[in-house]
Amino acid sequence: MTYRIKVPPRTLPVDEAHLVSGLEHWVLGLQKYRWSIIVGCVLLLLMGGGLWGVFWYEAQNASKAQELEREATLHLFARTGSDSQKAANNLKEAIALYKRVLEEYPRTPTAPLVQFSLGNAFLQANDLDSAIDAYKRFISTYGSNTSLLGLVHQKLGYAYLLKGDADQATKAYRAIVDMPGALNRDYALFEIARLEENRSRPDEALKQYQELMKAYPNSALTSEAAVRVKVIEAKKTSEPTSTVSPPSATVPSKPSKP
């Protein structure tokens, strides 16, 4: 008697069947939406290429701006000996190059430094009005650049002093004092105190000198401020208390070069 072995019908496991079914659905979905997928991929490629193009263009502009700034600075600080005409030509060339950077590449990382250097070049050329305009333009355009902002106000105050406008100079220095984290607040306090002293306002001058001595005991200006405090206090004690004489007009001393 023979026995017949029954072979069970071959069926896919449940998980494998689900996998095959999912793959079939995925392939059908690709076929159904293939044009939408192709268009999406093309758009992604175009966007990626566009972003790369923008970054490449900005990098090229930044490189060109740096080259022009370097060339201008070389002209500005070139030593010409006793040839005053050559020095004047170098200064003009530096100013022209700085202006070119600001006109062609105003949004590059080099532009704030160039704007500051342009003001310094005008100051060196004794063109005070142009220097003041350049510094003001920095404040209005690149005022968020805190690393240079304090120096810009310092140079602006110095330009106003050379022009003889003590009020505007005081405002420029006061802006430094009110600026959080400014590294040249000691210098600004000292200049404000000197201006107040020259205006025959000893009490206000003492206040600024003393604030400088208290806030910045290690500053190079502290020792000079201490001397000025002693001089002012000596003058106040030597004045007669019964009669008050009008303050004599004093000629402002030449501002210290920043």
Quick structural summary:
By secondary structure, the chain is an all-alpha fold. Helices cover 72% and strands 0% of the residues.
Helix and strand content put the structural class at mainly alpha
**CATH fold-type name of one domain:** Serine Threonine Protein Phosphatase 5, Tetratricopeptide repeat
Oligomer: single chain
- What would CATH call the homologous superfamily of one domain? Tetratricopeptide repeat domain
Strand content: under 5%
Q: Main β-sheet: number of strands, strand sense, barrel status?
A: none
Terminal CA distance reads: 119 Å
The appropriate CATH architecture of one domain is Alpha Horseshoe
The poorly predicted ranges are 247-251
Write up what this structure looks like.
The chain has helices spanning 14-32, 34-76, 84-104, 111-124, 128-141, 146-163, 166-177, 185-198, 202-215, 222-238. The protein is mainly α. Among the domains are: 63-166, Tetratricopeptide repeat domain (Serine Threonine Protein Phosphatase 5, Tetratricopeptide repeat, Alpha Horseshoe); 184-237, no CATH class. Mean pLDDT is 83; it is low at 247-251.
